[in-house]
Every structure is written in structure tokens, then in C-alpha cells.
């Protein structure tokens, strides 16, 4: 495995994920310099302090101009605006990659917005947490986790290999997948669970606010509520974009989920003990097939 070496890496959105990859690039000396591009100077200063970037620029065009590797690590709906702002000043042969939780149309749109001489490689590390911002980042965030690359017929094989090795150096287990299949699968294992967690928290707030003021979610709950809803504390901005960019899959998955909720509701309402147990047995069996990951890995 040949270690990649970049002259200049530009990270657009130096948050939890972009910042963590920046720490890895710097620690492993995979780039002469790592430049941050972002919205808030305060955050970019923190990114320098925690070792995620060497410096930051206020003009994104200046940051990507000299870069041979550009990483998009902002909420996915911002990609188009970013690419339109600076795609024309990318150098020929530069690699543009991302970490977005959605692929499908997002990959097609991103490829279309780049000059033909620039090489796009879609990537999605399946690791993260409910916290946002570079201060929550770490060099070990991706180790032992999967990272899905989503090559298309337009993907340059050499660029794909460079991005593959980069994620392997981050400690990830890298696999390739069609971008649209990615969205069906991640819709199921990641996006629907987030829908369920968000809706569960708003449902409980509704119960408290409309008829049960004594309900104190923090002090009356045990591990059950905390285990099922940790991810409801995730970034609303990021998840809004994920749901909308994977809209058709997410809506279809919610409908399936509603069917199962409806069936469980019906079984409980009619007092069908055997029916309830059968549904829970199936759920328990499926849950037990989820092999545990090392602590801190998602
Ligand atoms: N959090 C996770 O678990 C996780 C896991 C894998 C992939 N992702 C993907 O990674 C990307 C970043 O998520 P994150 O968890 O690092 O979030 P984050 O909020 O920690 O970081 C996002 C960064 O982008 C910046 N940003 C937001 N909008 C911007 C804009 N318009 N212009 C410039 N900068 C902007 C924010 O200020 C922040 O620094 C998202 O696309 C998300 O889908 C997240
Ligand atoms: O562990 C968490 O908090 C996560 O939500 C991480 C998680 C997920 O597993 O769904 C969230 C979004 C990503 O795109 C990848 C990973």
C-alpha cells in the first residue's frame, strides 16, 4: 500500500468528521499543509488548536486553488453551492472527495459540477457520533469502522485507489458500493433509526406538554430511553439535509416502519399476547445478530 502524499489538502467544513480526518492527515504527515475552509473563524481557530488543520483561509477559492486534494465535509445540501463557488479554480488532476451520509444523486450532481480534469470520489465513513464540531473529533474516530466508497463510470481508478488508501490509513475497512444502493442500505441502517429517535423524543415531549406535566424525561428515565434516543441529539442541520437528499428511500422506509408500529399497536390493543411475543421474538433475534463494535465506534 503506497502512502499518498498531498501538497495541499483543503477541508471544507472542519467539523467532527472533516476535523478528524484533518488530524489523521497531519499526524501521519500525509500532506505538506492542511487548509481549513469554513463559516466561523472561532471554529477554525479551534481546529488549528486541536491539530486538525495547519491554517485557515477566509476566501474558499484561495484555499482550493493550490490543493491537490479537497474534502467536502459540510452538510450535504451545501455541496452544490460550494462547488459552484470554487470548482473553476481547482487545478487539473485534483481529487475532490467527500464524507456525506448520502450518495446517489449527490454524487452525480457533484461530478457534473466539476471540470472534466478534476477527479471526484464519493466516500462515506460509517462512524460518527451525536456531537458536532471539531472539538469532538479524534484521530481514532474511524478506526475499525467501515468506509464506503461509491465509484461511478466516471471515477478515475487512480483517484479511487488514493482515497481507498487514505481511509485505510485512517484505520477503516473500506468497501465499494453503487451510490444508489448505498442510499437504500444506509437509509435502512442509519437514516430510519434517526427518524425513529427524533420522533420518539418529540412524542415524549408532546406527552409531557399535553397532559402529563409531572413527566420529567431526565430524572424518570433509565437506560431504555437513553439507549434508544442517543442519536436524537445529533445535528438537526445535518439530518435535515440527509432526509431530504434521500427522500424517496426514507419515506418508503418510514412507511414500512409505520406498518410494524401499527401491527404492534393492533396486537397490544386487542390483547394478542402470542402475537406480541412473536413480533418481539423476531426483533430480539435480529438485534442479537448485530455484532458489538469496540466502544466509541458506530
Ligand atoms: N456525524 C456523523 O455521525 C457523520 C458520520 C459520517 C458522515 N457524516 C457527514 O459528514 C458531514 C459533516 O458532518 P459532521 O458530523 O462533521 O458535522 P459538524 O457540524 O461537526 O461539521 C460540519 C462543519 O461544516 C460547517 N458548515 C456547515 N455549513 C457550512 C457552510 N454552508 N459553509 C461552510 N461550512 C459549513 C460547520 O460550521 C461545521 O464546521 C455531513 O455531510 C454528514 O452527513 C457525519
Ligand atoms: O453513532 C452515531 O451517533 C451515528 O449516528 C453515526 C452514523 C450512524 O451510524 O448512523 C450517522 C451518520 C453517518 O452517516 C454514519 C454513522
UniProtKB/TrEMBL annotation:
Q: Does the keyword Oxidoreductase apply?
A: yes
Q: Name one Pfam family in it.
A: PDH_N
EC class name:
oxidoreductase
Listed InterPro entries: 6-PGluconate_DH-like_C_sf, NAD(P)-bd_dom_sf, PDH_C, PDH_N, Preph/Arog_dehydrog, Prephen_DH
**PROSITE patterns from the UniProt entry:** PDH_ADH
Q: Tell me which Gene Ontology terms the entry assigns under biological process.
A: tyrosine biosynthetic process
Tell me the keywords, alphabetical order: Oxidoreductase
Q: What EC number(s) does the entry state?
A: 1.3.1.12
Give the molecular function GO annotations: NAD+ binding; prephenate dehydrogenase (NAD+) activity; prephenate dehydrogenase (NADP+) activity
- The molecule here is called Prephenate dehydrogenase
Organism (species): Nitrospira defluvii
Q: What's the source species' lineage?
A: Bacteria, Pseudomonadati, Nitrospirota, Nitrospiria, Nitrospirales
Q: Which gene encodes it?
A: tyrA
Amino acid at each position: 500500500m503506497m502512502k499518498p502524499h498531498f501538497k495541499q489538502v483543503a477541508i471544507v467544513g472542519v467539523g467532527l468528521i472533516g476535523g478528524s480526518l484533518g488530524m489523521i492527515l497531519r499526524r501521519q504527515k500525509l500532506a505538506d499543509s492542511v487548509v481549513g475552509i469554513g463559516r466561523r473563524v472561532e471554529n477554525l481557530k479551534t481546529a488549528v488548536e486541536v491539530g486538525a488543520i495547519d491554517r485557515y483561509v477566509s476566501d474558499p477559492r484561495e484555499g482550493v486553488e493550490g490543493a491537490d486534494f479537497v474534502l467536502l465535509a459540510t452538510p450535504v445540501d451545501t455541496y452544490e453551492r460550494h462547488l459552484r463557488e470554487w470548482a473553476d479554480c481547482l487545478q487539473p488532476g485534483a481529487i475532490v472527495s467527500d464524507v456525506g451520509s448520502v450518495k446517489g444523486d449527490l454524487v452525480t450532481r457533484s461530478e457534473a459540477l466539476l471540470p472534466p480534469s478534476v477527479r471526484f470520489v464519493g466516500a462515506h465513513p460509517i462512524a460518527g457520533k451525536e456531537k458536532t464540531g471539531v472539538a469532538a473529533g479524534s484521530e481514532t474516530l474511524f478506526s475499525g469502522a467501515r468506509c464506503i466508497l461509491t465509484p461511478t463510470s466516471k471515477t478515475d481508478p487512480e483517484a479511487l485507489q488514493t482515497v481507498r488508501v487514505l481511509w485505510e490509513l485512517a484505520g477503516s475497512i473500506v468497501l465499494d458500493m453503487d451510490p444508489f444502493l448505498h442510499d437504500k442500505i444506509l437509509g435502512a441502517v442509519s437514516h430510519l433509526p434517526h427518524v425513529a429517535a427524533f420522533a420518539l423524543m418529540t412524542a415524549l415531549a408532546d406527552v409531557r406538554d399535553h397532559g402529563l406535566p409531572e413527566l420529567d424525561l431526565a430524572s424518570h428515565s433509565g437506560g431504555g430511553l437513553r439507549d434508544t434516543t442517543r442519536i436524537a441529539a445529533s445535528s438537526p442541520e445535518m439530518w435535515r439535509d440527509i432526509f431530504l437528499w434521500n427522500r424517496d428511500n426514507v419515506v418508503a422506509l418510514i412507511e414500512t416502519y409505520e406498518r410494524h408500529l401499527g401491527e404492534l399497536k393492533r396486537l397490544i390493543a386487542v390483547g394478542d399476547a402470542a402475537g406480541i411475543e412473536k413480533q418481539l421474538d423476531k426483533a430480539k433475534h435480529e438485534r442479537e445478530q448485530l455484532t458489538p463494535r469496540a466502544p466509541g465506534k458506530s
